[in-house]
Design brief:
eight-stranded mixed sheet, globular, 8 strands, alpha/beta
């Protein structure tokens, strides 16, 4: 029984209730995938706080995956990159999967540094900077989409009622998210969140316009056209996580399996790609199976607007995407690193919001998760 329902950000009430009920009934069988990827966009000075320097952001994905699987008290090969404030949201993600007895599968789609934990290695390289207009080879995009679709269908055949939770760690990924959404014809400049305390909207928009222009995809108003080819947009300015995740959505949700896109703006871009790639007739059924789950910090961020972004996505495809924010808050935590979340220094990542939502759907309280994170943060700071 939920102590309080999660914040309902988008979608009609009946569909939201049905989706939440289905996930609550089968949370124990949730499949958790953490998709790691890299983009040279993360090396642009000042673009990201997922590591205080461009060099440190090279091992962010590896360090987060190791914290997710091994926990804060274990010895890990890659230290967490220094942050301006706060602590990695992988700490939240670990607390949830550990308590709920879930076994995440880490998939490396091209992280700059591979994680030193068991994972599925696809032997890919990071994407080029999106400003090039040639972020990914078109053949690679098609390969990853097809792989995701096949994998999603296999998962659905194995357990059609079992939720699939897709998480990500892609430094620079909110900028590729803005680029993909813009290329698909959505006006999202200023709405997309980011890892910095104050997202660098002007810098992101400049990179996006340069990339779309270089690819010949920039239309009137600094956006792509409504009939833009989603594969061309993804190849021009996207990242590998988006391609595989969109394929997973199409395969799993298309076969009737509930899908939880664990994140904020980046997962909105994945959902937009899936909608652009599927037929108009199949979109309503797909939309009933998919929801975005993010943190309260993303939902309430004053310098971005996920709710408005979702409204524009709804207007573009004539359906309301389901989206929720977990109730987890850190105001009462002992750790100053966790209270930094409340000041906006850290907001989301490694599936933290979606996993915190799953925690609530299992009948556990947000306060209990905050307490667990407090203890984990103490263990992390004291070292192995």
């Amino acid at each position: 029984m939920l102590a309080a329902p999660p914040q309902h950000l988008s979608g009609d009430a009946a569909s939201a209730g049905a989706w939440l009920g289905a996930c609550a009934a089968h949370w124990r069988q949730t499949t958790v995938l953490l998709l790691l990827a890299g983009t040279d966009t993360a090396a642009v000075p000042g673009i990201s706080a997922a590591g205080a320097t461009p060099e440190s952001r090279r091992w962010t994905a590896a360090a987060d995956a190791e914290l997710l699987l091994l926990g804060p008290a274990a010895e890990r090969r890659h230290a967490l990159p220094p942050l301006p404030a706060g602590v990695s949201p992988a700490l939240i993600a670990h607390g949830v999967v550990s308590e709920l007895g879930l076994d995440p599968l880490v998939v490396d789609l091209g992280a700059a540094v591979a994680p030193a934990v068991p994972h599925l290695q696809l032997g890919q390289a990071p994407a080029r900077c999106l400003s090039s207009g040639q972020a990914l080879e078109p053949a690679r995009v098609r390969q990853l989409l097809a792989l995701g679709d096949r994998w999603g269908r296999l998962l659905a055949a194995k357990g059609p009622q079992e939720p699939l939770l897709i998480a990500e760690c892609v430094p620079g990924g909110t900028t590729t998210a803005q680029a993909v959404l813009t290329g698909l014809g959505l006006e999202v400049a200023g709405l997309v969140s980011g890892s910095l305390l104050e997202p660098v909207h002007a810098l992101k928009t400049e990179l996006v316009e340069r990339g779309l222009s270089a690819a010949g995809l920039l239309g009137p108003g600094g956006m792509g056209g409504p009939d833009a080819d989603p594969l061309a947009v993804l190849a021009a300015v996207g990242d590998p996580m988006q391609a595989l995740a969109a394929g997973l959505v199409l395969g799993a949700a298309g076969a009737g399996r509930p899908v939880l896109l664990a994140g904020g703006s980046q997962m909105a871009a994945v959902w937009a790609l899936a909608l652009a790639l599927c037929s108009p007739a199949s979109r309503p059924a797909l939309a009933r199976q998919v929801a975005i789950g993010t943190t309260a910090w993303v939902a309430a961020e004053a310098s971005s607007n996920l709710a408005l972004l979702l409204q524009r996505l709804a207007a573009r495809w004539q359906l309301e995407p389901l989206a929720f924010a977990a109730n987890l808050r850190f105001q009462q935590c002992r750790s100053a690193r966790l209270r930094d979340y409340e000041a906006g220094y850290v907001k989301e990542g490694v599936g933290a919001g979606g996993l915190a939502l799953l925690w609530e759907l299992s009948g556990r309280s947000p306060a209990a998760l905050a307490q667990a994170c407090d203890l984990a943060c103490e263990q992390l700071l004291s070292g192995p």
